[in-house]
Write a structure and sequence with these properties.
Blueprint (H helix, E strand, L loop, with lengths): L1 H24 L1 H5 L13 H4 L8 H4 L14 H9 L33 H4 L5 H4 L42 H4 L36 H4 L21 H7 L14 E4 L2 E4 L9 E2 L6
Parallel strand pairs: 1-3
Antiparallel strand pairs: 1-2
């Protein structure tokens, strides 16, 4: 029994020794987790690795490889690496992913918890933010996907929408001047669909379902006219209005008259003429 144990111990030591000798002569096939990128293809293991240790940043910054101040070709990359001085290269880089592998991996931002985003990303978002929200980027962004934004409009509730959203859609409603009061139709949760309540101003029954420009023909929704449909054939209509001192905008009938449409009353009681008039009865 003892002889058998000694025999197998001898065989094990022999194989281990052979493995060590082979590893010394051909280290890459035995110890490597994969081929290096093309630029590192001529390096030997010992050029970067110390036995049983990860690659030290000193190996990367060697004079013949990536000396300090010369890492990267673009000024922004050189500046980034200068800011990263003292940090381990393996925070952002890896290898052994094949000759066509990508040596840069996703940055571990947890290593920079004490730093501010703008310490490194000084120019990021300047065009989009226009110096309005510089500060704590994490209120809207995360470090995994910059464009995965969760903007909280409650932070800027006191600001008019047009401070940030200056371009209104090019449609009939907005081109007539429906800007500046976005909250009347839109919410901050979803821009579409809008919920414009025209009934608040005038109920559009079956006789009034026309194009916006039919009533708002002056390119602004704040002004309207009834005269494009209700022409008032009476010859004395203009003179009657002039007698009341009304020389212009006689098409704004509801400024003086009242109409009951859709169960609601619209207009004023400046004159009794037309009072109680329904939508159909008003089609003179």
């Amino acid at each position: 029994m003892k002889k058998s144990y000694s025999f197998w111990l001898f065989i094990g030591c022999l194989l281990a020794g052979q493995l060590v000798l082979t590893g010394m002569k051909y280290p890459a096939p035995l110890y490597s987790t994969g081929d290096l990128v093309e630029a590192h293809g001529k390096l030997r293991c010992k050029d970067c690795h110390a036995p049983f240790k990860l690659v030290a940043s000193e190996s990367c910054s060697a004079a013949k490889c990536h000396p300090d101040g010369k890492i990267g070709k673009k000024p922004a990359m050189i500046d980034l690496h200068n800011r990263m001085k003292g940090k381990e290269c393996l925070i952002c880089h890896t290898d052994h992913l094949g000759s066509k592998g990508k040596i840069t991996k996703g940055m571990d931002h947890d290593a920079f918890k004490s730093s501010k985003c703008l310490d490194c990303h000084s120019g990021e978002g300047d065009k989009a933010h226009k110096e309005k929200y510089a500060g704590d980027c994490s209120e809207c962004h995360n470090t995994k996907k910059w464009k995965e934004v969760t903007f909280n409009h409650a932070r800027v509730s006191a600001k008019p929408c047009v401070d940030c959203h200056k371009k209104a859609p090019k449609d009939e409603m907005h081109e007539m001047g429906a800007i500046g009061s976005c909250g009347d139709c839109h919410t901050t949760k979803a821009w579409k669909p809008s919920t414009y309540n025209h009934d608040k101003y005038f109920f559009l029954d079956k006789d009034h379902k026309v194009a916006c420009a039919k009533c708002h023909d002056t390119k602004t929704y704040k002004k309207y006219t009834c005269m494009n449909c209700h022409e008032h054939a009476s010859r004395g209509i203009i003179s009657e209005h002039r007698e009341e001192g009304i020389k212009e905008d006689i098409g704004r009938c509801l400024d003086c008259h009242r109409a009951n449409i859709g169960g609601r009353s619209y207009g004023t009681d400046k004159t009794g003429e037309g009072e109680g008039m329904s939508g159909e009865e008003g089609d003179d």
